[in-house]
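User: what does the whole thing look like in 3D?
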Amino acid sequence: MTAEKNTVPHGHTISKSDRRELLAQNSKIIWFTGLSGSGKSTIAGKVEEVLNRRGFLTYLLDGDNVREGLNKDLGFTNKDRSENIRRIGEVSRLFVDAGVIVLAAFISPLKEDRKQVRALVEPGEFLEVFVNCPLEICEQRDPKGLYKKARAGEIADFTGIDAPFEIPDAPEIEIQSDKVSVEQAAEEIVRFVKPKIELE
Amino acid sequence: MTAEKNTVPHGHTISKSDRRELLAQNSKIIWFTGLSGSGKSTIAGKVEEVLNRRGFLTYLLDGDNVREGLNKDLGFTNKDRSENIRRIGEVSRLFVDAGVIVLAAFISPLKEDRKQVRALVEPGEFLEVFVNCPLEICEQRDPKGLYKKARAGEIADFTGIDAPFEIPDAPEIEIQSDKVSVEQAAEEIVRFVKPKIELE
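Assistant: Here's the predicted 3D structure for the full assembly of 400 residues, as structure tokens:
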């Protein structure tokens, strides 16, 4: 038997809209994509700070809380990286269903993977933020020392070095993170996002 | 390289306690374990209804929203069932970190699997509800027709038939679901849980 045939829906009475009503907010996925060192997680953290202070319930998913927990069984092969993003997408969908505004900060280099996450939720619920930063700058910053290791051949398939980063065609927001401060980036994102997360 | 070495913590400013403050509630995992047909998901749904009406933000995880999404790659072998519970535990941990009260309704027949979920969160954050219902009654009810299939040999390793259900030694709550109504069960659980989820 397949999993599907072994489960029958229950039809619970409390729905996404009940939870949104309780929180007085519209849940969304704000998805940050970009190279390692582009500032995704830092900017997402600042956005979370601003939104929390304005009374919105947010949750930030990034490597810190996902790679050592839910996805600790996954490595960095192409297959595992896609599975990593798939699971993060599914978890984000559950959070949106729970009424929570999810900020997800992951390199997520492949268009197809990001597209599949977008397709998991309703139209307008997935907001893609492309944190655009030239590879040279990311490599100069190298906050985790990973580029150095990749150049030395100690990490294989490193995005930007020997694995592709597929630039988003039509992200909802693009941040040139080498040209603006973290605060400016967060402000721009909050300005865009706020009307969408406020309950009408 | 392992996943661990490839990630470096960011130290974001908004914490679990900020989110609990915002929601004015203490997040917990309320974990319902019991045989198929024991009423776990129905009782959990009723608890959610009561808590939502009292202003608590809850989220119910069960086969409906997990087996066809996050865990759709998993089957029903022992290994896959343990991985199913492991992932649900990790997702529950993220929800608790987000400030949300999670209700998780899964057969979760093995003590070891449940123990591992309990160990993922802080002491007192995991509340185990044993929905105790005699096998004969569950089999009589058979709301999904699964016992019939298991008896006919169409489903292998079915809990209670040809796979064990390990009774919890010290659940926080035990509900004899053949002896009380869904409403009574929910009321008892809410009475126990409420002082623990209220912010001091």
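In plain terms: Strands of chain A lie at 29-33, 58-62, 101-105, 126-132, 173-176. Chain A touches chain B through 60 residues (CB under 8 Å).
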